[in-house]
Amino acid sequence: KLCVTVLSSPRLVAAFCSPALSAPMGSDPPTPALPRNFVVDYYETSSLCSQQLFQTKRGKQVCADPSETWVQEYVNDLELN
Asked: Which residues form the signal peptide (predicted)?
C-alpha cells in the first residue's frame, strides 16, 4: 500500500507494490483520488501487485487501491470510453 506515490517506471511499481512491503490491512488512510480529467488510461498489474495503475495525461503512472470507490468508478468510466 505504498503505491500512492506517483511512479515513473514499471519496475518501481513491482518493487513498491510488493505485498512484502505493504502495511497491514486497514492501517492505511484511503488513497487520495486523482482528478478524473488527469487520467487517460488504466492497467491491471501483475499478481505481484494488487493495485491498479492509472496513466495521466503527462505520462505518469499512479498506483491505486482497486477496492476504493473512486478507483472502481474511474476504471468503469475508462472501459466505457
From this structure: 1-15
Residue 48: domain span: 36-80
Instruction: Write down the H helix ranges in 1-81.
Output: 10-16, 69-80
Q: How many domains does the chain have?
A: 1
Q: What's the CATH number where 65 sits?
A: 2.40.50.40
Q: Looking at residue 19, what is its pLDDT?
A: 42
Residue 1 CB coordination number (10 Å)? 19
* Residue 28: inside a domain: no
Distance between CA atoms of residues 31 and 68, nearest Å: 8
pLDDT along the chain (81 residues), means of 10: 43 45 46 87 79 90 89 93 80
